[in-house]
Amino acid sequence: MKALDELTFDNRFARLGDAFSTHVLPDPLDEPRLVVASDAAMALLDLDPAVAQTPVFAELFSGHKLWEAAEPRAMVYSGHQFGGYSPQLGDGRGLLLGEVYNAAGEHWDLHLKGAGMTPYSRMGDGRAVLRSSIREFLASEALHALGIPSSRALCVIGSSTPVWREKQERGAMVLRLAPSHIRFGHFEYFYYTKKHEQQAELAEHVLNLHYPECREQPEPYLAMFREIVERNAEMIAKWQAYGFCHGVMNTDNMSILGITFDFGPFAFLDDFDAHFICNHSDHEGRYSFSNQVPIGQWNLSALAQALTPFISVDALKEALGLYLPLYQAHYLDLMRRRLGLTTAEEDDHKLVERLLALMQNSGVDYTLFFRRLGDESAALAVARLRDDFVDMAGFDTWADLYKARVARDGAYSEEQRRARMHAVNPLYILRNYLAQNAIAAAEAGDYSEVQRLHEVLTKPFEEQAGMEQYAQRPPDWGKHLEISCSS
Ligand code: AMP
Ligand code: MG
Known about the structure:
This protein is of the alpha+beta class. It has helices spanning 39-44, 55-60, 130-146, 184-192, 196-210, 220-242, 292-306, 313-320, 323-338, 348-359, 366-373, 378-385, 392-409, 414-422, 432-443, 448-457; strands at residues 21-23, 33-37, 73-81, 84-90, 94-101, 107-113, 128-129, 152-164, 168-178, 244-245, 267-268. Among the domains are: 4-184, no CATH class; 339-422, no CATH class. 39% of the residues lie in helices and 14% in strands. Strands 2, 5, 6, 7, 8 and 9 form a 6-stranded antiparallel β-sheet that branches. A 3-stranded antiparallel β-sheet has the order 1-3-4, covered by helices on one side. It is globular and about 65 Å long. Bound molecules: adenosine monophosphate and magnesium ion. Adenosine monophosphate binds next to strand 4. Residues 252-253, 262 line the site of magnesium ion.
């Protein structure tokens, strides 16, 4: 275990120089106070969880203090936003403080979001509000606990600094951790500005630090791109299987590591709705729940375009062709497991598709359906769940197919079935209304609800005593919360 002043820095991205990022000092927040910290994220830095309670912790992660070995930098990138190219983006309100490596030899970027204005702030104030910082913190740690690749979050620090959005709010900072903060948009920036030398440097940097095994391949860059395609296919398969809606899949929000990145108006589905749009500003539904799958490929094509100086177009096309079959294989594998199946049959995809079609417009809670399905034998579970469906006759037909399929899958006791299914079907997910309750309390100065919700979401598959209220469907007011992009 380390004390706060014992972190070891090795700022590899900062060393790429001024073409890639700009030195900027964090602009401190007034009266910093700890809102919540993640013990699991602290462990990634070998930090003793107790140090989160010390005053210096809040000072470090609100811009008042800095390690001598840190090198705060705002990164430059660009990207496709809602399909159109934005030539100049960058860290407008976040700073890469530095890279820390832990005892296991892993490097973690320390990125402070809400740290003030940078050369890339455009019209913004460089700040993040408490509401959005709490949402990013909870989502990062909750996705990780579900087994969905994501950037992590160390803590949220609140303050008394006023920040203007639709109304006056308070500024906060969230400390984000990831092995890299490089986005698809980094490659696009150097490609479209025709900075060929720097683009080659960036590609070498990513290959050496994040895809070293691809060096062994005859075409290392192609191998790296394939790996990025594979990781994205797997990540998006997990989003779809667990009902996660990202909301702003612009290429500047897509990580080169295939981890969920840059949380804005995200949501987990409550009632199943394939066409759900979680982003209030997404009028066309470009990033609707079901569109996430083709948009994943669209984004990879945008990255492929930026990699044309290194890889032939034919090879890039071939690698892009891997995306959909890989996505489908991962998705089906997960959905089989969510249904409690241990074997694979040709027609399993139809079983999944029919179920989702029945759920559509039925008002069935997506998460609880699978949890309840595993509570008891297939026959008992479907008999209990049928009342939730509008098309009960349709559900009965599905249930017969499902029971027959479960029978062919093998003979398992109810106990074995429950253990296996509960291990993949969460009881607790980050529902928008739960986040909203915790945020309302935090805005009134009570952080205990954020902390409790975080704690519950770190063990989403385990039934926790006294936490029934976190496993409930949303009340009416919490069903159609509109989350704007403003954060
Ligand atoms: P986002 O929608 O959070 O992914 O942000 C898109 C771009 O806008 C990024 O370049 C951000 O750094 C920038 N940005 C977002 N909010 C602010 C803000 N309050 N101040 C300055 N820049 C911002
Ligand atoms: Mg972003």
